[in-house]
Amino acid sequence: MASYIEPAPIKDKENPFESMMSRFDLAAQILGLDDATYNVLKTPMKQVIVSLPITMDDGAVKVFEGYRVIHSNILGPAKGGIRFDMDVNINEVKALAAWMTWKCAVVDIPYGGAKGGVTCNPRAMSAGEIERLMRAYTTAMLDIFGPDKDIPAPDMGTGPREMAWLMDEFSKAHGTTINAVVTGKPLVLGGSLGRVEATGRGVMVSAFAAMEKMKINPYGATCAVQGFGNVGSISAKLLHERGVKVVAISDISGAYYNENGIDITAALAYRDLNKGTLEGFKDAEKISNEDLLTLEVDVLVPAAKEDVITVENAPRIRAKLIVEGANGPTSAKADAILRDKGIMAVPDILANAGGVTVSYFEWVQNRLGYKWGLDRVNRRCDRIMKDAFEKVYTTAEKHNQSMRIGAYIVSIDKVAQTYQLRGRF
Ligand SMILES: NC(=O)C1=CN([C@@H]2O[C@H](COP(=O)(O)OP(=O)(O)OC[C@H]3O[C@@H](n4cnc5c(N)ncnc54)[C@H](OP(=O)(O)O)[C@@H]3O)[C@@H](O)[C@H]2O)C=CC1
Ligand SMILES: O=C(O)CCC(=O)C(=O)O
Q1: Which sites bind NAD(+) (predicted)?
Q2: Annotated active-site residue in 115, 185, 245, 391
Q3: Which ligand has an atom closest to residue 153 CA?
Q4: Could you give the CA distance from residue 64 to residue 54 in angstroms, rounded to a whole number?
Q5: Which of 136, 137, 147, 257 would you label with 212, given CA atoms 20 to 30 Å apart?
């Protein structure tokens, strides 16, 4: 057997790639994965690092570092978002790319996994500076991206506006409009109805599926959501609309708690009129992001960043159910603590897969030159999410493992079978 028999010891502050690998190792061991497939999958296929000199508004030239990692393309073209954030680094991007491989396999869509990013602080940049950066990043990745090769999408710090610039820059370089090179575009450029809401919608569908298993009545169940960007705000809105009492929300300015429930429509309107921040939001007590995580609630939705539920705070988590909107919010060491406490965690690679699922629908529509109605998009996404949830739940039960390891088993099994049937080894 391969070297994965003894999962690597995990240090206190977890490197996200090592954290991902420790779960992968356990699932690979349970599956009895062959050495060749194991060794191929533990290393990303391609890692690209570029330097991007940008003229800032004050005339100074600043050099940014950009990344794109393709973890695997054995299931189809690589797929994954682009993150603009100060914490972006190669280990983070490698982990996020691998998670995309597992995520696409869990929901059974024909894509491999990739991720990209630029180390920058978009909050401190003008729209013009962000546009120049996105266009420079696209130019640097012209040989990597392509509708049959690697298809980017939004992630933290990017959205439809940035995807429009990417599509335009790529199309200019090819002398023709190629909208299928990227998903998460504005609707008029070939974006799909439902994509903006899709990740939050998948979180909501996963939360309801898990509450049903745990016999938690969703009407009046309490919930705390960390992060109020694309994923967090839409998860909160959809849960609130369906009768869940969202008692806490947060962004980088802090967390806002009201035991009687927060009016999410009012919070969204406040954020949108307040330069995108919840700072100063009334009708709630201000608490810290750390305190939000340990509130006594039925459901906790971490939807901001990785590594927020750690070995330090896991013993104090009081939620019955965690539904991971963010990628990698729970460290590998914290997994065991949550499980011992009987907390169910619906893992990122399942819970937040609604986004890439509707990205897939967008790519299909672009290639067909056709548009689907919102009803069709939502119905198909919900069906895929529910089926994936059931498959992961059953697999976890069969192996007496957590939902997370169940999800890794489902994905790694699919990837391994693909290698075998394609006759690679
Ligand atoms: N967008 C998508 O379709 C998908 C995203 N994801 C994952 O979901 C997570 C969130 O992504 P997305 O919603 O797109 O990103 P956004 O940039 O839209 O939102 C991020 C949110 O997190 C908040 N935030 C950032 N840092 C912290 C912090 N240290 N403490 C508390 N809150 C913080 C931000 O606050 P502020 O606004 O004040 O900066 C913002 O509210 C990421 O892990 C991403 O990889 C997963 C699948 C798909
Ligand atoms: O929509 C996509 O293609 C990818 C979204 C993403 O980056 C993610 O699911 O983490």
Answers
A1: 199, 230
A2: 115
A3: 2
A4: 8
A5: 257
